[in-house]
Design brief:
By secondary structure, the protein is of the alpha/beta class. It is built from 20 helices and 18 strands. Helix 9 runs antiparallel to helix 10 and helix 17 packs parallel to helix 20.
Length: 652
């Protein structure tokens, strides 16, 4: 059943037509990925669905009562509220119920008789509604979601005006995921997320019961989560069944078929023209030749695109030059340590990088990945140990924020700074391969979008002709076609690669060794720890290793929990019971009423302590510990119920 239908939609902004005759349907509970070049109209489609943008022609039909959660690329907040207040903003119905329960409880203290019974019924109904709506868990959900989005407890009471752009984006995502919705519209949700947060989001979307449309360049996420791909291109939307991998395969099949059909059409026209030329003046063949010419002209007139060659969307196109092997040793770290005041990022880190190796560096945000690159480049001094590059190496550095670019200079000037011996025309030709054409080359760097800055940085890398590529989040702000072009160029590159990235698809395709910083062996945040993982595909090998370790730890904890329960319940043979006590209560026969009462009080106190632990950062940030605590809590609640039943039987 369609929950949203876009029918024959046309939308332009000024003279630029973004969507024309677009048709699209979204259905209940399906997860859909949306891809296409930057600027193709993907975000506009989401705004049409929410009603923020109206179609100039056509119509958008939404299912009555449809609850939509929308995350724009840039989340905005007033700046007047704290992080926690913003997380509560979409939960007004729960807060109203909570207040009503409190008010009713207070009113019950001042009435009696029939009025009290009426208030008690009202109180029970409110509590039931609150429980059904998830009211008893919403604070835990808020803290769990904030922890997954890398918000430490000390940030919960900070006003949003003090947050960075990345933190605002993550808060916007956390806020949307807390809402009760039937349809989620997420525009680049993994921007500013590290691997751990992205994996948490994947699990959330996998368990989410509603429908979701996800605009994303994260191909790994699109492979794991979605069942359809909407491709937005040339002002239209085409739906492909399956995940991203299936979409790529299907599109390649279609492309090959179109190329064969184009070749057949071209061959047919060429043969027809040749026949006409050879027979136009031949006796007995003139009529046939004129007939074929007439039919060919009619065909081409009625089908003006008959000879058009199907072309892919315009994207960057480049390759790196050949490198020189000046040294086998590219980078050596010995006992490297780096601290900022009381914050220790590295301790005693030792490794070598040799010529031709491809090292990927990944880990949670704020654990020192970019710092490690700056230490290697010599722009930061280590707190201990040494780090040095090999001699006479040409090093190309791509900074994820583009800080090496002069915001006052033009695109052309910044590119020429790398190769001043080249003419302006030669540099403009190189810039054209990175989609800087016409007056684009005269734009100031300070006015460029994130994607344009990244493309300019890539152009500068190519112009430098480096022996070593040092890249910090090289796929940020690039659309999928541009990412794949970059990966193709890097696969052919003969030099050494050191790349910080959260792009799992990129890591799998490019690097052969992974340095994971800031996590323990189960993938949980742990500052100061680093681990090397070898093999390809690099990220998949690492993820499999963490999964095996996590399963082994979970089995160990389960065995310990089972042993703990057996010790609490007693295992001795008590002989045949002397009464008709239910089987599950027989083990309490050996205790007096007073002893059972003491056990009840002790267990109630333990359960209260467990409730408080649900709000402990170390617990709710760790899925394994949280799951273990939930299991033990459920077991204790069940045990308490048995104790109450045993007490009631013994006390009469």
């Amino acid at each position: 059943m369609a929950i949203v239908t876009l029918h024959d939609v046309h939308r332009a902004f000024g003279s630029e037509v973004v969507l024309d005759g677009l048709n699209l349907q979204l259905h209940t509970a399906e997860k859909v990925g949306m891809v296409g070049p930057n600027g193709s109209g993907k975000s506009t489609i989401l705004k049409l669905i929410t009603g923020q943008v109206e179609p100039e022609m056509g119509r958008v039909v939404r299912q009555k009562g449809l609850r939509i959660g929308y995350l724009p690329q840039e989340a905005t907040f007033s700046g007047q509220h704290t992080v926690l207040e913003e997380m509560h903003a979409g939960l007004d119905h729960l807060l109203r119920l909570q207040q009503a329960i409190h008010d009713t409880s207070h009113e019950m203290e001042h009435v009696s008789g029939s009025a009290l019974r009426a208030k008690m019924k009202q109180y029970d109904r409110l509590c039931h509604d609150f429980e059904i709506a998830g009211g008893y868990e919403f604070e835990i959900r808020i803290k769990t979601t904030l922890a997954a989005m890398d918000f430490a407890p000390e940030l919960h009471d900070v006003k949003t005006s003090a947050l960075s752009g990345g933190q605002l984006s993550r808060l916007g995502l956390a806020q949307v995921l807390m809402l009760e919705t039937d349809l989620l519209l997420l525009d680049e949700p993994t921007n500013h997320l590290d691997l751990q947060a992205t994996e948490w989001l994947e699990r959330f979307l996998g368990n989410y019961r509603g429908a979701a449309v996800i605009i994303s360049h994260d191909r790994y996420l699109l492979d794991k989560v979605v069942c359809k791909i909407i491709e937005v291109e040339n002002r239209q939307a085409q739906v492909w069944n399956g995940n991203y991998h299936s979409y790529v395969e299907a599109k390649e099949t279609v492309r090959l078929r179109q190329e064969r059909e184009h070749a057949k059409r071209t061959e047919m026209v060429e043969k027809t023209l040749d026949f006409i030329a050879r027979n136009m003046d031949q006796d007995g063949m003139r009529g046939t030749a004129r007939g074929r010419k007439t039919r060919l002209n009619r065909l081409l007139k009625e089908n003006p695109d008959f000879l058009d060659n199907p072309v892919d969307a315009r994207t960057i196109s480049f390759s790196f030059g050949k490198t020189e092997r000046t040294s086998d040793l590219v980078l050596r770290c010995e006992g490297l340590g780096k601290s900022f005041d009381d914050l220790t990022l590295f301790e005693d880190l030792t490794f070598d990088i040799l010529h031709g190796e491809r090292l990927g560096i990944t880990g949670p945000n704020g654990t020192g990945k970019s710092t490690l690159l700056k230490l290697a480049l010599g722009t930061l001094e280590p707190s201990s140990g040494t780090v040095r590059m090999g001699a006479s190496l040409r090093v190309g550095y791509l900074d994820q924020h583009g800080e090496v670019l002069d915001s006052e200079k033009t695109v052309l000037e910044e590119a020429r700074r790398i190769r001043p011996e080249l003419s302006a025309e030669q540099v403009r030709n190189r810039l054209g391969a990175f989609l800087f054409t016409g007056d684009d080359v005269f734009k100031q760097c300070g006015d460029l979008s994130g994607g344009q800055r990244n493309r300019l940085m890539l152009c500068r890398l190519v112009l430098r002709e480096p022996d070593v590529l040092v890249m910090d989040e090289p796929t940020n702000h690039l659309d999928i076609a541009s990412r794949e072009m970059l990966e193709a160029a890097l696969r052919d590159y003969t030099g050494t690669i050191i790349a910080v990235s959260h792009d799992r698809y990129f890591l799998d395709r490019i690097v052969d060794k992974l340095l994971v910083v800031g996590t323990d062996e189960l993938g949980r945040r742990c500052l100061g720890r680093a681990e090397f993982v070898g093999g390809r595909p690099a990220y998949t090998v690492y993820a499999s290793l963490v999964r095996k370790r996590t399963e082994a730890e979970r089995d160990k904890q389960q065995a310990q929990a089972n042993g703990s329960r057996k010790r609490r319940g007693g295992t001795g043979d008590q002989g045949k019971p002397r009464t008709t006590t239910p089987e599950e209560l027989k083990r309490f026969n050996k205790y007096s009423v007073e002893q059972i009462e003491e056990m009840i009080m002790a267990l109630e106190e333990e359960i209260e302590g467990m409730k408080e632990r649900f709000g402990d950062e170390a617990i709710y940030k760790d899925p394994a510990q949280l799951a273990e605590l939930q299991r033990d809590y459920d077991a204790n609640v069940a045990e308490l119920d048995l104790l109450y039943r045993a007490y009631e039987r013994r006390a009469g």
